[in-house]
Design goal:
Elements lengths: L1 H10 L8 E3 L5 H4 L11 E3 L4 H15 L6 H28 L5 H32 L2 H38 L1
Antiparallel strand pairs: 1-2
């Protein structure tokens, strides 16, 4: 289960940036009882810990059944995931440091820059994944296809749950 949760986040986080969490500085109004339906505008992607990245890479390697022959194709893909995670970490840290001093336009531009960097990282990662996927047996391809679809579905469900929880938190004070 943990693997399926991290698959889109690393296969689209490093493979992506899927798991979005409100920036800690922007997440406090609802927690303080003040409804703020615009807090989501200050999102920053989730920054996975290095041990989470390593665990994801190992789990993905094992789950996909990478063979010794495929290791030469796996290595650049795994390295891209690590490099992307480090770039994401650095970009998030830089954004968080600057966020308190940003105006709305700068905030939006900072987020746009972060998303553009993530899109570039996804292209790089896809370029490394395509030859690896091409080396997969039919069974490995079918399994990879299933894992990616399941991971996407689980991610979408979690996003819906978060949205519902946010709506519930902002609707609750109005009902009082």
């Amino acid at each position: 289960m943990m693997f399926r949760r991290f698959l889109p986040a690393a296969a689209l986080m490093m493979l992506p940036a899927m798991a979005m969490a409100a920036d800690p500085q922007a997440a406090t109004p609802a927690a303080q009882g003040t409804p703020n339906t615009t807090a989501s505008l200050a999102h920053t992607p989730r920054d996975p810990a290095p041990d989470e990245v390593e665990a994801h890479i190992k789990a993905l390697h094992d789950e996909l059944g990478i063979t010794k022959k495929q290791e030469t194709l796996w290595t650049p893909f795994a390295q891209d995931m690590m490099d992307n995670a480090q770039r994401l970490h650095d970009a998030i840290e830089a954004r968080r440091e600057k966020l308190p001093k940003m105006n709305a336009v700068e905030n939006m531009q900072s987020y746009a820059d972060l998303v553009a960097e993530r899109a570039h990282d996804m292209q790089t990662l896809n370029s490394a994944f395509a030859p690896l996927y091409g080396s997969f047996s039919k069974k490995q391809r079918k399994h990879a296809d299933t894992l990616f679809v399941q991971g996407d579905s689980e991610h979408a469900e979690k996003q819906q749950e978060r949205a519902a929880a946010t709506q519930g938190a902002t609707a609750a004070p109005a009902a009082q």
